[in-house]
Design brief:
The protein is built from 9 helices and 8 strands. It is of the alpha/beta class. The chain has one domain: Alanine racemase (TIM Barrel, Alpha-Beta Barrel). Strands 7-6-5-4-3-2-1-8 form an 8-stranded parallel β-sheet. The radius of gyration is 17 Å and the shape is globular. It starts with 5 loop residues before the first helix and ends in a 6-residue tail after the last helix. The mean pLDDT is 96. Bound molecules: pyridoxal-5'-phosphate. Pyridoxal-5'-phosphate (PLP) binds next to strand 8 and helix 9.
Length: 235
């Protein structure tokens, strides 16, 4: 059997994003592909980087820190962006603040305040998305839509953070109509916050199985793992 390479799979994902963007009458460049490299080694990141991929998402802190160091050693001249997309324990905020460019999974003000305090001087502001628990969300993580506006206003005030937008992980659905309905809920919340004056520019939604529906509903970042790197092995 001929396995496609990471480069070929990246190209296929890029085509699929471009196709959905075109259908939505959006420029394909308005969607950032975040390659979710959790459980895969630095070699997989290097292969993707060689194929032009620059943004990587990680869920597990220690694994990520080791991988970031290994990749930096191998590619000292290449600037990559690292996004933390896993659940955040409050005693683990410091290494997140020190090693990442983005955090997608902020759901409490206390966590945001710690990230703000712990972001090292001299580093750019840490880009933040608030994780929202839209109805029917599989994981119970995320702020409720009713608590979202107060959280967004509080996080927007914190120094060394830049509130960029919203993130969600809807319950997996195979029907594209249902996929789009969940993403549309997040888009409406995002538009309400923007109408209230918050300068948001990021909707982080869509994974390997539903990225086209997410792009059709306005995703600006899609988080794609298995479609690029293959099935994950957690054993
Ligand atoms: C693992 C993960 C992804 C990628 O999932 P795939 O189905 O492999 O594309 C995206 N977002 C989050 C938050 C994840 O944990």
């Amino acid at each position: 059997m001929i396995m496609s390479t990471i480069e070929e799979k990246l190209q296929a994902v890029r085509r699929s994003i471009a196709q959905a963007a075109t259908e939505a009458q959006r420029p394909p460049e308005s969607v950032t592909l975040l390659a979710v490299s959790k459980t895969f080694g630095a070699d997989a990141v290097l292969a993707a980087a060689a194929a032009g991929q620059t943004a990587f998402g990680e869920n597990y802190l220690q694994e990520a820190i080791d991988k970031i160091a290994a990749v930096r050693l191998a590619l000292p001249q290449t600037v990559l962006a690292w996004h933390f997309i896993g659940p955040i324990q409050s005693n683990k905020t410091r290494p997140i603040a020190e090693h990442f460019d983005w955090v997608h999974t902020v759901e409490r003000e206390k966590i945001a305040a710690r990230l703000s305090e712990q972001r090292p001087d001299g580093m750019a502001d840490l880009n933040i998305c608030l994780q929202v628990n839209i109805s029917g969300e599989a994981s119970k993580s995320g702020v409720s839509p009713s608590d979202l506006p107060a959280l967004a206003r509080a996080v927007a005030q914190l120094p060394k953070l830049r509130l960029r937008g919203l993130m969600a992980i809807p319950e997996p659905q195979t029907d594209p109509v249902l996929q789009r309905a969940a993403f549309a809920q997040l888009r409406v919340l995002y538009e309400q916050l923007r109408a209230d004056g918050l300068p948001l520019d990021t909707l982080s939604m869509g994974m390997s199985a539903d990225l086209q529906a997410a792009v059709l509903e306005g995703a600006t970042i899609v988080r794609v793992g298995s479609a690029i790197f293959g099935a994950r092995d957690y054993s």
